């Protein structure tokens, strides 16, 4: 059996990161994690583009436009949506997740969902660089591996 796996190297890879300004005290930590992961895996800082949008709901349209340019091997979506007293957060998280999956399939590149979906502020903080790691870092790692797998296929 032949196994296809992806190397965890950012050398020669160009990524776009779309980040929500909403909950910026969390999303800025995600950006730091994403950038740190990319650079530590041999990426060139000039090959990592950062685009800011108002909120998570605006991420998909910008991610789609970035994927459409053909300049990037992957697009990373970063944001933080925290559940409140209404089901609004569930609606946003579901809509964004579905849209990102559709963009990835339509363009044939990884579009990673690094949007924190938390029940409360403590959970969000844990996923933005404390106990549960950093979803920005995790999304870049998944992007690098998936880019390598697609390249190997």
Average pLDDT, all residues? 94
Secondary-structure element series: EHEHEHEHEEH
CATH class: Alpha Beta
**CATH topology heading:** Rossmann fold
**Can you tell me the number of structural domains?**
1
Ends: how far apart? Answer: 15 Å
Quickly count the helices: 5
- The general outline is globular
Tell me roughly what share of residues is in helical segments.
40-55%
Quick take:
The protein is an alpha/beta fold and 153 residues long. The chain contains 5 helices and 6 strands; from the N terminus they run E-H-E-H-E-H-E-H-E-E-H. It has one domain: 3-Layer(aba) Sandwich (Rossmann fold).
Textual characterization of the structure:
The chain is α/β, with parallel strands linked by helices and 153 residues long. The chain has one domain: Rossmann fold (3-Layer(aba) Sandwich). It is 48% helix and 22% strand. It contains five helices and six strands; from the N terminus they run E-H-E-H-E-H-E-H-E-E-H. It has a four-stranded parallel β-sheet, with helices on both faces. A two-stranded antiparallel sheet has the order 5-6. Helix 3 links the parallel strand 3 and strand 4. Helix 1 crosses helix 5 and helix 2 packs parallel to helix 3. The longest helix is centred in the middle third of the chain and has 20 residues. The chain is globular and about 45 Å long. The two termini are 15 Å apart.
Write a concise keyword list for the protein shown above.
153 residues, alpha/beta, Rossmann fold, four-stranded parallel sheet, two-stranded antiparallel ribbon, 6 strands
């Amino acid at each position: 059996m032949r196994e296809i796996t992806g190397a965890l190297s950012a050398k020669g890879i160009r990524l776009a990161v779309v980040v929500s300004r909403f909950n910026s005290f969390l999303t800025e930590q995600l950006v730091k994690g994403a950038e740190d992961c990319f650079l530590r895996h041999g990426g060139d800082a000039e090959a990592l583009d950062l685009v800011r949008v108002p909120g998570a709901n605006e991420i998909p349209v910008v991610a789609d436009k970035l994927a459409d340019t053909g300049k990037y091997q992957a697009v990373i979506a970063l944001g933080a949506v925290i559940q409140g007293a209404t089901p609004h957060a569930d609606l946003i998280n579901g809509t964004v997740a579905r849209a990102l999956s559709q963009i990835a399939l339509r363009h044939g590149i990884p579009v990673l969902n690094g949007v924190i979906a938390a029940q409360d502020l403590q959970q969000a903080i844990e996923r933005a660089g404390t106990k549960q790691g950093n979803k920005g870092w995790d999304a870049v790692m998944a992007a690098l591996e998936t880019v390598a797998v697609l390249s190997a296929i």
